Amino acid sequence: MKMLTKFESKSSRAKGVAFHPTRPWVLVALHLSIIQLWDYRMGTLIDRFEDHEGPVRCVNFHPTQPLFVSGSDDYSIKVWSLTSRKCIFTLTGHLDYLRNVSFHHDLPWILSCSDDQTIRIWNWQNRQEIACLTGHNHYVLLAQFHPSEDLIVSASLDLTVRVWDISGLRKKHSAPQSQQHSFEDQMQRRQLPQQDIFGNVNAVVKYVLEGHDKGVNWAAFHPTLPLIVSAADDRLVKLWRMSDTKAWEVDTCRGHTGNVICAVFHPHQDLILSVSDDKTIRVWDLNKRTPVKQFKRENDRFWMIANHPTMNLFATCHDSGLMVFKLERERPAHTLFQNKLYYVNGEKQLQSFDTSRDETSMPMLSMKKIGKAWSFMKTLSYNSAENSMLVTHGDGDNGMYALLTLPKQITGALEPSDIRLGEANFACFISRNRFVTFVKSSKVLYVKDMNNSVTKSIQLDLAITDVLNANGGRVILVRNHSVTLYDVQQKKELNTMSANKIKYAVWSPDGNYLALLSKHTVTIATKDLQHVTSLHETIRVKSAAWDESGVLLYSTLNHIKYGLLNGDNGIIKTLKDTLYIVKILGNKVYCLNRQGQAEVVVIDPTEYRFKRSLVNKNFAEVLRIIKNSNLVGQNIIAYIQKKGYSEIALQFVQDPETRFELALECGDLAIAETEAEKLDSKKTWKKLADEALLQGNVEVVERAFQRLQLFDKLSFLYLSKGDSERLNKMTVIAEAQLNPSSVLQNTIYTNDVDARINALAKGGLVSLAYTLAVTTGRNEIAEELLQAGKPEDLNLGVTGAPLQVPQPVGSVAENWPLKPSTLTSFESAFKSGNLDDFVEDSKIESHTESGSTSVPTAAFNDLALDDESEQEDAGWELDEDDLGIDDELDDVEADFVEADGAIVETESGLEGEITYWLRNNKTAAGCAAAGAFEQAASLLNKQVGVVNFAPLRKRFMEVYSSNKLYLPGVDGLPAMKSYIRKRDDEDSSDSFVPFIPGFEEMDEKLSSAFKFFRGNNLPEAISVFRDIIYTITLLSVSEDEKEAKCEDILTLCREYILGLSIELERRSVETTDVKRNLELAAYFTRAKLQNTHRVNALQVAMLQSFKNKNYSSASYFAGELLNILPTGPKAEQAKKIRARSDTIASDAIEIDFDPYADFDICCASFTPIYKGEEEVLEALVGAKYKVEYKGLVCRITNITCVGVPASGLRIKNEC
Predict the structure, then answer these.
(1) Which intervals of the chain form a coiled coil (predicted)?
(2) How far does Cα 461 stand from its chain's mean position?
(3) Burial class of 945 by CB neighbour count within 10 A (0 to 12, 13 to 18, 19+)
(4) pLDDT digit string (tens) for 1099-1142?
(5) Terminal Cα-to-Cα distance of the chain (whole angstroms)
(6) Residue 933: how many CA atoms within 13 Å on its side-chain side?
(7) H-type helices in 751-806, by residue range?
(8) How distant, in Å, are the alpha carbons of 96, 729, 730 from that of 737?
(9) What is the pTM of this model?
(10) Alpha-carbon span 1054 to 1048, nearest angstrom
(11) Is 218 helix (H, G, I), strand (E, B) or coil?
(12) C-alpha to C-alpha distance for 759 and 961, rounded to whole angstroms
């Protein structure tokens, strides 16, 4: 047995302690007249209460109300409110120190005892004393209500323990139930009840327990049994039993060497705990009355021990403060194998739980005889091959393991017949006939066989503190500040990662990730111990398990939480009691509780699935969750905004203020203005105006300024637009508002001189009005003003010609020209409701088939396969009519003449650069860049058998023109010509090579092709894929990685063109030719497409087969689809079709397609080429044909000849 300290506080001497019945709180009464309220889970001081005038000896919580009571040496009892954190009232009446106070579990009573030798009962509602129990003739150190009956137990220094019957007191202070009394009640009332010396007939002594030789310090009722435990200064702990008529001593626990201060029962185990001034805590077996364990504190004397009413928690008061602890770990030993959870229940029996059926089996083995009586099972490890179980138990030097053989049939908790024992602190199976054990004291790792014989021993580092299980014959070595992955077979440390005090390791179902659990931290790493993220908790972490989607769910003392690989986490469910997670299936979390019972907790995984989909950019799942789930809350909205997806949050937020802020963030002024009208606040309109100004939307700015009545800003806005009509209206508005300053400003904007002169004159500024009239040639008005003013002040002398007033030119300005905004891919799909495209794109990473027919090259990590964009794209249209060989060349050919198939410059001054290019070049693209088209064509013919150059004309001209620069000269002189090299910092002419475009645009072209594929525009998709082939055909690269990538892309293009051509052929087949239709649909699935697109092919084949009653084929295609896409609408459809098809399992139409045969598809006839049949190859992309197509132009490339000798395409240039 082990004592696990959960919390310690340092203070002056603590005299009393009490647990809150439901919250993780503990009250501590200090000798310094202070009461402290602690949160023992967080380790924080919540509050201090300082109203007593003497040492506080006792405290207690109310079982249901937010109250607690305290007793002190100041003779008073105080009742406190946990809500207001203040003393509500004080009860006085005791004449000496208070020793103990407590609440009744049901009635509004407080029980107190004192050194005045009395026990008093108070009604805390009317704040009156209702009974005073006398009989003890010395200090009463303890008085306590029975947890369920009308009894009180008291302990005194008069050497006795007394049990009091308070049933009469209950009847006296309870409301009358009926006016009629039974005959028995009437007879009972006639009997003279027992009285105490004060005449009290409502609370009387039922038993007096005598047996201690010195004063009794404590007594306590058992929570369920008719037992009493007492502790006294005679160093003994006594156990008493009582019946309806008598009470007697059962036995005595001996072992303490000092006065026993306190003793309590364990809340749900047959144990007694006692503390003594010999500085020890002792644990006793209730049944045998023998000592189980002793824990000693060297420097502090214990004053009290209190037990939690329901949990395995205890608190002790000592001279230096408080300690909260529990006995043994409560984590049930368990192991998971497939759908079977094996665990040790509360009766120390091995049991199993079937997660597929949610059924608990009968106990299969009893483990009560394994280890000592109070030795708990720590870990289990199951061997399915031998149907054996490894069990570890004990701690430190007492650690042991047992190898058990499980019964083949479960008939009950049998005693194990074949037990092989050994010393170990850790044991687990590493293969079907081997297991490893670790002995902590010697730091040795033993490998043993099923006969328990050592086959290998490994001396480990002395710093190793523990060993944890890993996969594939490996274990994890734990040090204080690191963990190491260790291969037992090779005796080799594979990887090490820093992590502090790891206790448990949890592997993901696919074995790719590992969660390492410590006291307050969850560390997630890859299978090679590469750190991914860490999650920190203030509450202790208890367990963890992985969701099938790769999300970690872990439990703390009071929550189930989730953690994503990017470090995001959150709360899923609040727990009433601590649970240990073992497995997650869908929305079910399979757990074990502390009583050793399996529980199924139903959760809502929407939040973490939404966040995971958002982080992984799986917008299909994001849309589906938004449409099908009630996902709301500021937390989710804030998370979406934080991740930069405000347009997603905008789709399902209803609050006007939040929608307004999101719309501004997205730049959607229409929604922002709609919400601003709902809010109608100055702050909102101001924000809208500022954002609209930034976007140049003057119409929204105008409406916002009008709402804000910012007339000066409106006038300036109309001035900037050149809107004279509205400027004149603003002048009228200013006049109506009697705002001369605004009138003057508007007349300046409108250039209305007469109105301005009038405004100045009305404003008393006659001199300015006169000056303006004279300078603008208004002589009549000037004369009138001169007569009204002082001539000497207004004589300006000689003035020049009237000023010319500028006028706006052109029409009124509209909104600033901006690129028209288009809907994002998310918004388009959300509004249309079409989610299928997203489903395809989102499943590439998550679901890959191990034996998949993907392109047999390196993963396309560097390719632009992110085809999420839904924007319209013109693509690459390769209409052969537009590319006829007789069409006129571009303007760039004006300075060149064509001779013998090659283009040669007419000017000889720059021939040196071209010469270097031709000399240093080793690719056809370099020749084309230099203008040697004939030489480039010859190279392509020899390397890959190109015979049709018409489709390559566009590419030839692109390569030729992209590396030549023409700068216009001065009048009368020709343009200046220059060349663009691949590297302009080369000094040696041996390294001069031309710049060849195309590689950088490869990813964009692939994205465009995939977009056409998704849009079901198959001819355009084929056209773009062929354009990519033509780009690579005339390309030059210098790195091996780029060359390899181009080879991969050529293979990719071949497979997509083949598959799409087959599908186009199927669509053109007559409806009466059902067999050919089914064959082509089946052949489409053999094209090596990306999984996200192969789903389409499989769905076509599945639906066509099912429609035409080829159920066996439909079932096969449905299974292939589900291997790639296990969830979603398409998956649900496939499951239904497979279920229906499997009941029939036959094909109505026989087709030439064997899904399990090894064959290729002829790119011309679209028929199988089985293994062993003759075939011919095309050299550029590797397309395969039947021999009858030898010498014809390839249907995939449209430029190469099938079956001709070729050396292979060369695009790498070393220079």
Answers:
(1) none
(2) 37
(3) buried
(4) 999 999 999 999 999 999 999 999 888 888 888 999 999 898 88
(5) 76
(6) 22
(7) 753-762, 766-775, 779-788, 791-794
(8) 84, 12, 10
(9) 0.59
(10) 10
(11) strand
(12) 68
